[in-house]
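Page 47, continued from p. 46.
Same chain as before, 148 aa.
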Amino acid sequence: MMQLFYAATRQNIVGSNVTTAMLLANNVQEAMANLTFNDPVTGRATFGAESGETTATQFDDIDDFDGVTFSPPVDSLLNELPDVSRFAQVVSVVPVYTNKLNSNNGATLEIPKSTYTGAARVTVRIVHVADEATTGEIFRTSWIRVDR
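Result:
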């Protein structure tokens, strides 16, 4: 009976963590939803955060999020969420060909990040720190964003 109780409790924890992870990934997608594809000031001159954009609240285009890890994670307005500090949102943005959306989908990039293609894949990985020795990815999602 105790083993059954332990197994059920463990599955409830896993389900709760996955639900939290899905919400955290969605927060990043919502934060990026109304941002421009290219920087409003410098255009395509810089891939990643431009000089002076030191915090996520200063990000003004989607590639600013590339390589950023939010720990503690953030909500859709980029406010920190200390109550879920055992989670982290790891974001990557890579260009993809508009006629080959599965391009740049591996460990090795076939298109340099500085190349403008008119489309980008945004990937958000949610990492959970269970304890000092156990850290692991528990959720991953990605979507394609096209230049309007």
